[in-house]
Amino acid sequence: MLTTVLDTADLPPAERAAAWVETTGQALISTRVSFLEPDQIEARVQAMALGRIQMSVLSYTPLSSQRTPRLIRQSDPEMYQLALTIAGQQSIEQARTYASVGPGDLLLYDSSRPFTATVGPNPPGARAMLLQFPRQLLPLPEKAVAPLCGAALDGRAGVGLLLRQMLTGLADTHADLTSGDSVRLGTTAVDLTAALLAHHADRQTLLPTASRQRALFEQISAHIATHLGDPRLTPRAIAAAHFISTRYLHRIFQQHGTAVSDVIRQQRLARCRRDLADPAQCTVPIAAIAMRWGYPRPSDFTRSFRTATGMTPSEYRAASQDMDRGQR
């Protein structure tokens, strides 16, 4: 569950800066902070435990934050932090690497190395998500990761986009997750982080097999979800799109307790059921809905739909409309 750890709106203005320093020092890592507009501080911290991993959502007015050698000597949890900028512009310098990032950018930094981060007044303030995890959980050697600390990583394509969507999805669905879900999703988030870093370092072979397979499963699942309307979406086509054999594709899905053909069929039928039950689409021909979600032959769609639901598509639509009228 994503819970609010600090909201400066609940505090007198004179106490807000100190509360931010104390809260972030306890929930994240200790830094030396200077707000650029100390009389107009607005900041909020929300946090969610994912096992040994933590995800936070932060918003703050313009500030400068420093992780100094002295603070590191005093306390170093030996954490990596992956930041996703949601709004605003931020800059960071770590290990002689400087980056300026905006919405959609990802950035990795290391609690064991000094850094300086700045959020300027144009636009005022920023909002970001932060994935924090012990360094030993990242299945990559430090020598491969170190050059990427403080460097901007694209969150708009490939593995970066998948990781960004997962983090924002966690924030959107946190209330529905069990503790077991949270732990598993935390592991997946670190695996995707490792895959992204390996991609940028061109060191994918350094990833352990299990991490590569979990990251690949997430990539393929996202590919399926965005290509459901293509009737040519088959295991062979999916394998070719990801440069793997069909046999290896089936093995990856078997390790997750399912089959790739089952996933395609279940997701297509779920979209069809949603559209058939939608009162706004009651005049859309059933064949058009079937075609929209990858069923070019009505007979194939009817047979698959009846097997899954025990009703024909027309019967399902009629029952859904009757239920909708009864609820009015």
What would your notes on this structure say?
This is Helix-turn-helix domain-containing protein. Keywords: DNA-binding, Transcription, Transcription regulation. It holds the Pfam family AraC_binding_2. GO terms for molecular function: DNA-binding transcription factor activity; sequence-specific DNA binding. It is a single chain. The protein has about 325 residues and is of the alpha+beta class. The chain has 2 domains: about 5-225, Jelly Rolls (Sandwich), CATH 2.60.120.10; about 225-328, Orthogonal Bundle (Arc Repressor Mutant, subunit A). The protein has 12 helices and 12 strands. The protein has a 7-stranded antiparallel beta sheet with strand order 1-3-4-11-6-9-12. It has a 5-stranded antiparallel beta sheet with strand order 2-5-10-7-8.
Main CATH class of the largest domain: Mainly Beta
What letter string, H or E per element, gives the SSE order? EHEEEEHEEEEEEHEHHHHHHHHH
**Coarse shape:** globular
- Structural class, by secondary structure, is alpha+beta
Q: Order of strands side by side in the largest beta sheet?
A: 1-3-4-11-6-9-12
Question: Termini distance?
Answer: 34 Å
What is the helical fraction, as a range of percent?
A: 40-55%
Strand fraction: 15-25%
Architecture (CATH level 2) name of the largest domain: Sandwich
| Average residue-wise pLDDT | 90
Largest sheet: 7 strands, antiparallel
Number of helices: 12
Low-confidence stretches: none
CATH superfamily of the largest domain: Jelly Rolls
Number of domains as seen in the coordinates: 2
CATH topology of the largest domain: Jelly Rolls
The gyration radius over C-alpha positions equals 24 Å
